[in-house]
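Hey,

The postdoc asked me to send both predictions to you directly instead of through the lab channel. I've kept everything plain text so nothing gets mangled by the mail client. Protein one:
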Amino acid sequence: MSHIVIIGSGHAGLSLARELRAKDANCKITLLSKETICAYYKPNLSKALSSGKTADQLIMKTAEMLSEELDIHCLSHAEVMHIDSSRQNCSYHCIENEAIMELHYDKLVLATGASPIRLPTTVANSKHVLAINNLDQYRQFRDQLIGKQSVVIIGAGYIGCELASDLSNHNIQVSIIDRGAWPLSRAVPQALGSVIQERMATQQSVSWYLGKTLECIEQKDNLFSVHLSSGESIKADLVISAIGLQANLKLAQLAGAKTGLGIQVDAYSASSVSNIYALGDCAEYQEKLLPFIAPITAAAKTLAKTLTGEPCALSFPANAVPVKLSACPTVICPSHDSRGIWEVQGSGTDMEAHFINASGELSGFALTGAAVKRKTDLLKLCKGLTIAPAETQDQSIVLSQAC
């Protein structure tokens, strides 16, 4: 009986476990996580405040429920310390009893996710600046928010803007700092970013400090002073860092797998080390990271086929991501192409932007206001991403690895 070990219990790891069990009723599946294993919808973290949800109320299924439903072995609070790819063993530290245990695998899947990028210690004491990327961090955020009236968010990307919207709806005064000249500057053109900025400023009283960099953060008693390179200073009760995520690569590197932005994988999600695969926020596909729910789900379905003897190459259709901004409906379809130009049309808050790649194809788009209704039509026209198998790759090797 094949034993598949999955390290990581986020959306990637749990989705793969479900897909594997649907494909194979007999294979042995073990899921390890240094956190408490449970099923919850991570995108809800940036809007749970307005909906009144506590961390516990976001949990949809506990480890016990998942174990019974999927017939898998769930090991919470198990931190993998070493991977011996020659023996196909991984060693993990059982945090509850301080024991070091070994686990043999036939196939190992790294679904280790990504962690928030921390501010340099020269800028701030990381203990005083919150990041919200999992349930435990959300729980800490909710606890520290009690009685607070003002928050500074560093970063005006997806998470920063969504948190600002959520906090503002909860009558918290929000200030956002970002070195970009407009919100979501890496995802939308300036015309749409300006619409988002104006709507959140007028409808939710969000204060923007854009095109500026952070100098340092000081704390005195329960009040923070956030100093900018422009000479401005912002007072706040709480500071949240949302400057981005970086893939968790340590275990892959210990196992000898090739890494770049993430764990480099081929068309079958296989790393450079035999019988070790990568999935989710930690995986790198042709020098690209695909951090959203839809591509992770698609990759999990494909990898489940490969691991159960039906090698299947990865293919990612265009994916429209709704950005949870109550003041300005926004949908973004991220382009898989780094080179191209934006073509913008519309007026007022109803804006439509097309990202045209170097080949003249529609490979991404962004919509605001009433233009979000165009999402379905544009998705039909938008280019996705297919990971082609290497021409030199022997299909018999793929089959032997998958079986």
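Protein two:
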Amino acid sequence: MAIVIHLKRKKRTKDWYVIYLNDGREVLSYIDFILKFKIKTGKHLTEEEISEIKSISDLILAKETAYKFLSYKPRTQKEVEDKLRQKGFTQDIISKVIEDIKRYGFINDIEYARNFVLNRTKSKSLGKIALKQSLLLKGIPNEIIEQVLEEREKLIDEFEIAFELARKKLKLLKSSKKKKRNENELKRKIYEFLTRRGFTWETIGRVIDKIFDDSELYI
């Protein structure tokens, strides 16, 4: 049995306290346990009571951390898990928090992926490959990515997006006073540009063929 030698409220909070025990341990406690166990200096705590305080307080703190993280902007499940892991929470605590958050709809990877793709589609700046890579990095499961990209294909023509980007890029290349490039150099530049934007080689090939075949418009 341990004895409470000091009780201190954490700075800038009203619900969190640190319990200092005579064996050198410092236990972070939510206010509910301070009231439940009537904790004050000299109070004796059993190991069962200390374990209850620590485990449930850790869960409450993890939930607070997750909801605060989500309050700034939408996040993927992986992003929330990584944040909690970075803060030192155990996998058991993380799993319970994720289950709670998903139950209330604060994490929805498929909606996140749809909005991510929609926003990039509106800006007409990225191709299918780049979108997939970005979503994979955010921890979106591959089956969700494939579903969302399939939905995207029904709404937009990726060839037209790539073609418009390439047309603007070619215009800049041709207007540059630094260096005059021949057709092969221009094709290479367009290819590299569209590759970086994440378009498929098939789409890039079609775009290059169309642009350079239409010599009257793009010379």
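Summary for protein two, as requested: The CA atoms of residues 50 and 162 lie 61 Å apart.

Thanks,
C.
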